[in-house]
Design goal:
The chain is an alpha/beta fold. About 40% of the residues lie in helices and about 15% in strands. Strand 3, helix 5 (about 135-145) and strand 4 (about 145-150) form a beta-alpha-beta unit. About 50% of the residues are buried. The chain binds pyridoxal-5'-phosphate.
Length: about 400
């Protein structure tokens, strides 16, 4: 195994997939003008009302922002949730906790410490996460001192963890479960019955279900169900469930660093207290602009339409090739390159052959006990460039890997 592909199993803060990608491609010249489909950074236009809203509230940069957010921010987030997930409109407002986050990434990290604190009775805490996974889950679990338990999320289980396969001894010591839907990297969506089962497990074993729903607004057919709406429908409030929401993907604002978490009001209250001493507050002008962004759906619909056009192009260009399927949600392609020597080999071949930069699936997954890696046969392509560039990239991939 090359140093670039060695999974730093013992290190709680391993290199990010992108640092590993830099190492993998170091010293290799791209074979054509570079097209970067490696990082999932949206390149569609920002909402045009963002800057005016930021400027309107610029005086707020002279103040420390409140960790709990402004009332206007919390109300805008609650109103958006109620529109998107109608059962939440029925819920008394004090049963829905909301906290702003400076991007969901920091929230996904800090949240495990509060999840650990609510189950101090457990000696050998476990945190469940899918494999492959968004890298922050593993860094958070590692830093918290809990044992990360990686749940296989391959094609045989529809790219989501098999909830029925989690052992009773593991469930008994689980403090938190990261569930990503639509999932990064595979684009799988957890349906209502899957979410119901996950919530039921969380309540029975009293752990926190952390539903990472960053990609909830980018989908192919119907809006993916959300964990909070399912919890609300099940009755008994939102206990044991939180949802992570981001403006990065929904609104093409990865640089704004704006998101929020919502759900279990008791947990959110404790999380706010914990965050009060450690976490980055969201600047007041960013909160103000986020209110406007959350209130507008027109730019979100336009954004979704742009992705749909690119997936239509992928349907045409990749049909029957590289295990292509159109993801239910999110903006990634998860392509099977086993026949091309696996993910790292294919990424190097494409970089040297045609300048297209993709991410090897192995960098998004952890080795299994037997040394296999569920991402090894795959590459991830982020469909974030415009239509013409994306088409060029896909044609180059097909041509180079034929
Ligand atoms: C699954 C998932 N969760 C969370 C994030 C973090 O998003 P942000 O911090 O921009 O809100 C990302 C970013 O790529 C992601 O892919």
């Amino acid at each position: 195994m090359s140093p670039a592909s060695a999974a730093p199993a013992e290190n709680p803060a391993p290199q990010s997939p992108f640092q590993r990608l830099d190492v993998l491609l170091e010293g290799l010249e791209p074979g054509a003008e570079v097209i970067d489909l490696g990082v999932g950074e949206p390149r569609h236009p920002m909402p045009d009302f963002l800057m005016p809203a930021l400027i309107e509230a610029q005086a707020g940069f002279s103040k420390y922002p409140p960790i709990k957010g402004t009332k206007a921010f919390r109300e805008a987030a609650a109103a958006w949730l109620a529109r998107r997930y109608p059962p939440l409109a029925e819920l008394p407002r004090d049963e829905l906790g909301i906290l702003p986050l400076s991007g969901t990434r920091e929230g996904l990290f800090y949240v495990v410490f509060s999840a650990m604190a609510r189950r101090r009775d457990i000696e050998q805490a476990a945190i469940l996460l899918p494999n492959p996974f968004y890298h922050t889950y593993a860094s958070a679990a590692g830093a918290s001192g809990a044992e990360p338990v990686f749940l296989a999320a391959g094609p045989e289980t529809g790219f989501l963890p098999d909830l029925g396969a989690i052992g009773a001894d593991t469930l008994a010591r689980t403090v938190a479960f990261f569930l990503c839907s639509p999932s990064n990297p595979q684009g799988a969506v957890a349906d209502a019955s899957y979410l119901e089962q996950a919530i039921e497990l969380a309540r029975r074993h009293d752990f926190l279900l952390i539903a990472d729903e960053c990609y909830s607004e980018i989908y192919t057919r119907s809006p993916p169900p959300g964990a909070l709406e399912i919890a609300a429908r099940m009755g008994a409030g939102l206990g044991n469930v939180i949802s992570m929401q981001s403006l990065s993907k929904r609104s093409n604002l990865p640089g704004l660093r704006a998101g929020f978490c919502a759900g279990d009001p008791v947990f959110i209250g404790d999380f706010a207290t914990f965050r009060g001493t450690v976490a980055p507050q969201m600047p007041l002008p960013v909160q103000h602009a986020s209110v406007a962004v959350l209130a507008d759906e027109a730019h979100v619909e336009a954004n979704r339409a742009l992705y749909a056009k690119k997936f239509d192009a992928a349907d045409r260009i990749l049909d029957g090739k590289l295990g292509y399927y159109r993801p239910e949600g999110g903006f990634f392609l998860w392509l099977d390159v086993a026949a091309h020597g696996g993910g790292e080999r294919a990424v190097k071949t494409l970089w040297k052959g045609c300048g297209v930069k993709l991410l090897p699936g192995r960098f998004l997954a952890r080795d299994n006990a037997d040394g296999t890696n569920p991402g090894a046969d795959y590459v991830r392509a982020a469909m974030v460039q415009d239509l013409a560039i994306t088409e060029t990239a896909l044609l180059r991939i097909v041509e180079t890997l034929k």
